[in-house]
Structure formats: structure tokens, C-alpha cells
Amino acid sequence: MNRNQVLPQVELSAEPSALKKVDFCAPQSYKGAGFLSMSDMPRLAEEASTVNPADGFHWSVSTHFENSPGSEPHQILELGLKGRLHLVCQRCLQDCAVDLDEKRRFILVLTDSEADGYPVEDEEQEPLVINQHFNLLETIEDEVLLSLPLIPKHPDGFCEPHASTFVEDGEEEVSNERENPFNILKNMKKN
User: For residue 9, what are the β-bridge partners?
Assistant: First the structure.
């Protein structure tokens, strides 16, 4: 008989406070979805250039057990993230909307030594150490932070020209030459 058919499935609350203490050690599987605003994820909010009311992330979580030959079934957590935040474009230094749509898969383990023994080559899933008071909200925020582009930028051709770099028609061109700072001393000597 399949272990997933025997275990009860618990619906996760969408409340951020409820996501701070999830008992993944209990003999049950979980399913849930919700929306987290930027105010629910303070470390992520620090990275944002501006925070719009609609910015945030829809999340979905489900756990299930998978049989593994020669050992106990492993609990798998699948996490989906979809949302938007605003960062500073590194080309034009203007506000840039960044859309993320990520899917992650974790194998849940009970100890750090189990996680350390997990094969590094497995790119499909990575180990996640769980406990009876697991902070799922923190894990969601961590995964969003890890998904951010190293160098945020607008798509090619969408950057707005920087005002000090380009001159519009009819305006005088600003001289790029700096005034010699010793000219003041030269004038003082004459007087």
C-alpha cells in the first residue's frame, strides 16, 4: 500500500504567522497556497528599490512520500513561487520590475549529517533539514532571494536614457570638461 494513501493531508494556512511553525516531522502530508506581500518578507523588502502594493509572491507547497529502494520512503517538498518585485537596473539606474516564476524540489531530512551525505550531483532536488517547528516562511523568502538576478537590468532596448548623459533637442550641451581647480589660485596671485 502507498504511504501517501494512508497519511492524512493537512491544508496549510495562508497566514504568514502560521507558516513560521510547520511540523514536517508529523506523519502527514501538506498542501497549501497563498500570497506573501513584501511586508511579510523583510529581508526581501530591503533588496527592493520600491515597494508597490501589488508586489509580492504567490506560493504553493505540497509534500508527498516517494519510495526509495532499500530504505524508508523519503518525504518530498515541492515549492512554487511566482511574483514581482522592483530592483535597480544596473544599466540605467532606474526602477526595473523583475518577474520570477520558480519551482523547487527538496528532499526533507532530519539531521545536518543526512543533508551533508546527500549527493551534490543531484540537481533535481536538494536536502532541506526539517524539525517540528520548521519556518516555512523563512524558506520561501530564502528561495526568492536566491532566485534574484545577480545583475538586474531591463531587457535590451528598454532602458531609459539617464538625464545627465543625453542631451535633448534644443538644450545646450553640458561641457564635459572640468574647470581647472588651480585657476582660482592663478587669479589670486595676480591680485
Answer: 29
**Ordered per-residue pLDDT tens for the chain, 191 residues:** 455 456 788 899 889 999 999 988 888 889 999 999 998 999 999 988 888 888 899 999 999 888 766 667 888 999 999 999 999 888 888 888 889 999 999 988 888 888 888 777 777 888 889 988 899 999 999 999 999 988 888 877 777 655 544 445 545 444 555 667 677 777 776 66
Contact 134, 22 (CB under 8 A): yes
Asked if residues 106 and 124 have their Cβ atoms less than 8 Å apart, the reply is no
The domain locations on the chain are 3-161
Residue 159: strand, helix, or coil: coil
